[in-house]
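Usage

Read records sequentially. Each one opens with the input sequence:
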Amino acid sequence: MTAQRRQPRSRPETLARRREILDAAVEIFGSKGFTGGTLQEIADQVGMTHAGILHHFGSKHELLLEVLQHRDDTDVADLEEQHIPDGMPLFRHLVRTAFVNAHRAGIVQTFVVLSAESVTHDHPGREFFEKRYRTLRSEVAHAFAVVCAERGVTAPETIAFASASILAVMDGLQVQWLLEPDAVDLARATEFAIEAIVTAVLTPTPSPLRDGADVEAQPSRSTV
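and closes with the structure output:
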């Protein structure tokens, strides 16, 4: 009697298993970082072996990149063609994202921890984050350009500053919120900051920060 041949795992089962591993990796990397979190801890959480994780993702480095991409994909999953919009809808999308993030502390923490780690020497996520911020700055800048063109506003230098500032505010508020969630309203604070930056670009006014002699002595770095 010949042994019955084992049937290969179906694709839906494989995808579900990979998603389970990704969810576990988000939790482990979010709490311990990429360096501190181990594949064995992830394997233990999903009832697999270390070798089983490598079977699905090849290496810890590859798993990290999948985790980062998975995180970004969740932000655009409900959007048309899974891509952020342009013009004013982009800024509204960023605000909506902040409201969503206020209910998913785990994935926000993973992003904050890994993005901070990525500035260290030879971190495997550095190239991902460099490209991510470069792309986002470009997309936000283009959205500003579209809105400015619609309203007859010319502010190329301000747009560059504003694009970087919006991303910095969003990420910085996430850190404050994770540290003290009862003291920082992530969604409302993000909405306020984005509205303030967009308004400053579209309706520039003299800066109140330049009223003092000390500030006036510094070289101007903004047209706002």
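Summary fields computed downstream for this record:
- Residues 84-207 form one domain.
- The chain has ten helices and no strands.
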